[in-house]
Amino acid sequence: MKKIKLTALERSWILYDIGNSAFILLVSTLIPIYFNALATTGGLNESLYLSYWGYAGSAATLLVAVIGPICGTLADHRGFKKPIFMACMLLGVLGCAAMGVTAGWLAFLVVFVLAKVGYSSSLVFYDAMLPEVTTDERMDTVSSMGYAYGYIGSVIPFILCLLLVLFGDKIGIGAGTAMVVSFLITAVWWFVCTQPLLKRYRQTAFVEHGGNPVSSTFRRLRDTFREVRQQKHIFLYLLAFFFFIDGVYTIIDMATAYGTALGLDTTGLLLALLVTQIVAFPSALIFGRLSQKYASKTLIPVCIAAYIGIAVFAFFLKSQWQFWVLAVVVGMFQGGVQALSRSHFAKIIPQEKSGEYFGLFDICGKGASFLGTMIVSVGSQLTGSANVGVGSIAILFVIGFVLFSISTRTEETKRV
Q: What b/e sequence results for 341-380 when a residue is b if at least 16 CB atoms lie within 10 Å of its CB, and e otherwise?
């Protein structure tokens, strides 16, 4: 397993992962705690706080599920991908900065949904750039390095934010002001890390549109849905991805809210999730190196099986040390399953249609995570126990494991 030297374009592509990961780390750590404070002030109890936070996440992902494939298909036209990517990135960056100046928990949730839509939509085009940024042989490794450096790079602004929130009062900065500055730090970091990609990326895979690009987009999107149904191995993979990655994103999005609802120490939760990012860095790189020896169709099931165990363990979670164990184990497999799923899909689709295919990919990924968050939210609200909702997402991983196995066998049969 030899070490590869990255090109300038590959480095710029990875740098965007470092930028946007700072936002999603804030979403997974400080933002739920900040929202909890707003919700408490607004008179919401712990169960309702977790439910409304889950509903906001579901609303954002459903919006992306609707607009992702349309924008992705439009972006496959010559010269469209970079401008639409930039617009989505700016929506996320400005939304992140604006979250610090909202008044009340409801207004905060509305701005959060807009920022999350911008973030998730930008990833449709970012992921679709992968086949243009690197080669098939380097794809698994470059994808893994994107997640790996995203994890460790996002820790830099997060530590600054964490220090402000935890110790700002010692230098005369109140908790509210510390969060406002944290949102601004994260937004600026995200924006600056995007600039090299905007400078170097050129769309090389595209389709020519005849006439109106909007009508052409909907026509091609209809044709793509038909093609996917005919390409059984792609259809089954997307279906499998829908289930197992739904569970992965639910754990990422709900981890801090889950620990807070269980009454665990806030500082301990934040430090544990910081450990997740640190552990995820070498783990994602290891999976990238392993992908040079083992096929992604072999490594992905290993990650899914590990997540089945994680979900079952979460069902019985009660104390702080158990949350730390969970954080470490999640870090070991989180980057691997995300990176390999992305590169595996990029290798089985036509490059010139990467935008529209990754639009569908996003429906089955971030756009599908409404199911997991809804399971957690409804389970918590109906039973009054967060453990019931979180533990029940194990079934998503089981279904995903079975469907992925069927999809790989179907692909092998097609090749024969």
A: bbbbbbeebebbbbbbbbbbbbbbbbbbbbbbbbbbbbbb
Of 235, 237, 252, 370, which Cα lies nearest the Cα of 311?
A: 252
Gap between the Cα atoms of 197 and 314, Å rounded? 38
Instruction: Tell which phi-psi region holds residue 78, choosing left (phi > 0), alpha (psi between -120 and 50) or beta.
Output: beta
**Which residue type occupies 165?**
V
Distance (Å, whole) CA 75 – CA 89: 14
pLDDT-derived band of residue 214, with 50, 70 and 90 as boundaries? low
Distance CA 386, CA 46 (A): 10
What is d(CA 341, CA 245) in angstroms, rounded to the nearest whole number?
Answer: 9
Q: Is the dihedral of CA 324, 326, 329, 333 positive or negative?
A: negative
- C-alpha to C-alpha distance for 42 and 105, rounded to whole angstroms: 7
**What is the model's pTM?**
0.76
CA atoms within 13 A on the CB side of 364: 22
In this structure, of 44-53, 109-118, 180-189, 308-317, the range with the lowest mean pLDDT score is: 44-53
- Which has the closest alpha carbon to 377: 368, 388, 366, 367? 388
